[in-house]
Amino acid sequence: MTDPFALFDEWFAEAQASEPNDPNAMALATVDMAGRPSARMVLLKGHGPDGFVFYTNRESRKADDLAAQPYAALLFHWKSLRRQVRVEGAVSHASDAESDAYFASRGRDSRLGAWASDQSRPLDSRETFEARFAAMQARFEGKDVPRPPHWGGYRIIPSAIEFWQDRAHRLHERRLFVRAKDIGADAWTEGQLYP
Asked: What SS3 state is found at 175?
């Protein structure tokens, strides 16, 4: 198979069937303007040839990093399958329409929480956050909860995707797909890496 997205679809479907919790969890690695790295877990909410999508507060630390350095790396680790997938690439914003549609699919309390949270900023006490959440409940009582202007999606447009499969005696299989710059945006080269 020389289509990394078809292979990802196959592996992701197997992970959804076998992983006990959050098969769409992925580590997101970013760097700030000074080159200091940061990693955290986020949830994959869309994927395909146009990229891998997650959603967050666009005033968070990860958003600040992505504004300064619009490149990121993702890591999926499916322990039950003994597999990993690494993705590296440029980052762009998901469209407002995509962000609106996903936000509308979230539970009401999650939507209210997006309004109440100053994600990644210092918090003096849990009570302060709970009071802000209660204020949002009152503000939107009996109304739809729209997407906050500071909240939306990001798309990692892969330039490289590596598929790692555990093998006995640490003789692992590693397949690397690299987007061919001179052939066209949808062309990929495939090779293998030593374990």
From this structure: strand
Q: What does the pLDDT read at residue 182?
A: 60
* Mean pLDDT, rounded, for 161-168: 95
CA atoms of 192 and 82, how far apart (whole Å): 18
DSSP state of 36: -
**Residue 179 in tokens:** 């987007």
Tokens of 118: 């100053």
C-alpha separations of 105 from 45, 191, 195 in Å: 11, 39, 41
Q: What number of other Cβ atoms are within 10 A of residue 178's Cβ? A: 17
**Residues involved in catalysis:** 170
C-alpha–C-alpha distance, residues 176 and 190, integer Å: 6
**CA dihedral sign, ordered 121, 122, 125, 128:** negative
Task: Decide if 118 contacts 14 (C-beta within 8 A).
Answer: no
Radius of gyration of the chain (CA): 19
Tell me 49's DSSP state.
T
Structural domains of the chain, with CATH: 4-96+150-193 (2.30.110.10)
Residue 68 phi, psi (nearest 5): -75, -40
Model-level pTM greater than 0.90? Answer: yes
> Rounded to the nearest 5°, which phi and psi values hold at 24?
-95, 5
For 54-78, the pLDDT digits (tens) are 999 999 999 999 999 999 999 999 9
